[in-house]
Amino acid sequence: MTRPQKQIRLAAHFPGVNNTTVWSDPRAGSQIEFSSFVHFARTAERAKFDFLFLAEGLRLREQGGKIYDLDVVGRPDTFTVLAALAAVTDRLGLTGTINSTFNEPYEVARQFATLDHLSGGRSAWNVVTSWDAFTGENFRRGGFLPQEERYSRAKEFLATAHELFDSWKGDEIVADQDSGTFIGRPDAGAFAHHGQHFDIQGRFDVPRSPQGRPVIFQAGDSEEGREFAAAEADAIFSRHGTLEAGQAFYRDVKSRLARHGRRPEDLRILPAATFALADTDAEAEELAREIRRQQVSGATAIRHLEFVWNRDLSAYDPDGPLPDIDPDVESEHLARGRAQVHMYRDPIATAREWRELAEANNWSIRDLVINTGNRQNFVGSPETIAKTIDAYVQADAADGFILVPHITPGGLDGFADKVVPLLQEQGVFRTDYEGTTLRDHLGLNRPA
């Protein structure tokens, strides 16, 4: 029996300033002005995307005591941006990354419940943890948590937030029959949680929101992260963009759901995906090469090499050969913030491998970083990209994709205008929204 075609889920990631964005392109706009967010969100909604996704960094990266060049314009607050976007969109889901290591359940639950009310049921929470003591310096607790404690705290954080979301069990505000005034039932919003990480009790002051709870995203890829997603998440933000890796990840995570009393359709798997779109496949390949060169300036190439060498390499020519000295594995790392510090477990071996690659291909430092860095997931004409995305979804490498354009805010426009109509013609993507909430868009049930 032939399986019906799966419906593709599409979302848009406003990338901010990072190694995906080509901020130097003349078409690039502000990463912080509200008009950029509005343009991006309205394009996604015009294309009937499921949601817009915002990442968040709680501290700017530093290298050699200076703010990293791709972080220089800063990061606006997630909740503020999403609440403002709720007023200028009607159906688009609004997903924010909020950290469970440096926040508190009551505050976060109250903010998401409020956003869900303001947006008519379109909020989603990407639950993340943080290992980074450098980031922790921005918070009064400071420090960091070991990995096992991070996930322990995250699980209890989410469980506590769910208790708060569920503390309003129905129509808790009712009209007094005699006076006609509104009164609250005695147990409305009452909660008490006594656990390892949180010991709180009181009354939650936001009534149950349109979705009951926000859609829960999770982005971890470790064993703990996969199990956490299988037990708790509605969707997982995957980093596995190739067909084979995507299929392996998909099988693994979906196979874990049954032991948590869940069905495969209860969890959506959505890898991030970059793209290079042009009129022909050949033009797209050339565009992809140009994008990669734009993404790696000379200064960026040197900074990337410094992650591995752990040395100040500013005296080196990015268009010259790699350093012949070995990485410094004894000193404190000169890069601080986010995951780059831990990307390379064996710097000496990595440096040796890169020297061999550079010598074999006659690559400069910049050439090496360009050719060993991330490549676009989808490259081609509108027809090629539409066909490839559909093939990945039908082959169970993903349930859809979170698209990350290289230009903000206009980088999504071509995909919306040229690729989405082809997917709609194939019958694998909606032509209009059929519901009002993000759970409707993703085909997820409202929690009881």
Short descriptors:
single chain, 448 residues, alpha/beta, 2 domains, 14 helices, globular, oxidoreductase, NtaA/DmoA family FMN-dependent monooxygenase, Luciferase-like_sf, NTA_MOA
Describe the protein's topology.
Blueprint: E1 9-14, H1 34-46, E2 51-54, E3 62-63, E4 66-67, H2 78-86, E5 93-99, H3 105-119, E6 123-128, H4 133-136, H5 147-165, E7 173-175, E8 182-184, E9 190-194, E10 199-203, E11 215-218, H6 223-232, E12 235-238, H7 243-255, E13 268-273, E14 275-277, H8 281-295, H9 298-309, E15 335-336, H10 347-361, H11 365-372, E16 378-380, H12 382-394, E17 400-403, H13 413-425, H14 438-442
Parallel strand pairs: 1-2, 1-17, 2-5, 5-6, 6-11, 11-12, 12-13, 13-17, 14-16
Antiparallel strand pairs: 3-4, 3-15, 7-8, 9-10
Helix pairs in contact: 2-3, 3-5, 5-6, 9-11, 12-13
| CATH third-tier fold name of the largest domain | TIM Barrel
Q: Structural class of the secondary structure composition?
A: alpha/beta
Number of DSSP strand runs: 17
Strand proportion: 15-25%
* Fourth CATH level, the homologous superfamily of the largest domain: Luciferase-like domain
Could you say what the CATH architecture of the largest domain is? Alpha-Beta Barrel
CATH class of the largest domain: Alpha Beta
Mean pLDDT: 89
Question: How many individual domains?
Answer: 2
Model regions low in confidence, pLDDT < 50 over at least 5 residues? none
Radius of gyration: 23 Å
- Shape assignment: globular
Give the biggest sheet: 8 strands, parallel, barrel
Widest beta sheet: strand line-up: 1-2-5-6-11-12-13-17
Number of helices, counting only DSSP H or I runs of 4 residues or more: 14
Distance between the termini: 34 Å
| Share in helix | 25-40%
Domain Luciferase-like: 26-395
InterPro entries: Diverse_substr_monoxygenases, Luciferase-like_dom, Luciferase-like_sf, NTA_MOA
Pfam families: Bac_luciferase
Family: Belongs to the NtaA/SnaA/DszA monooxygenase family.
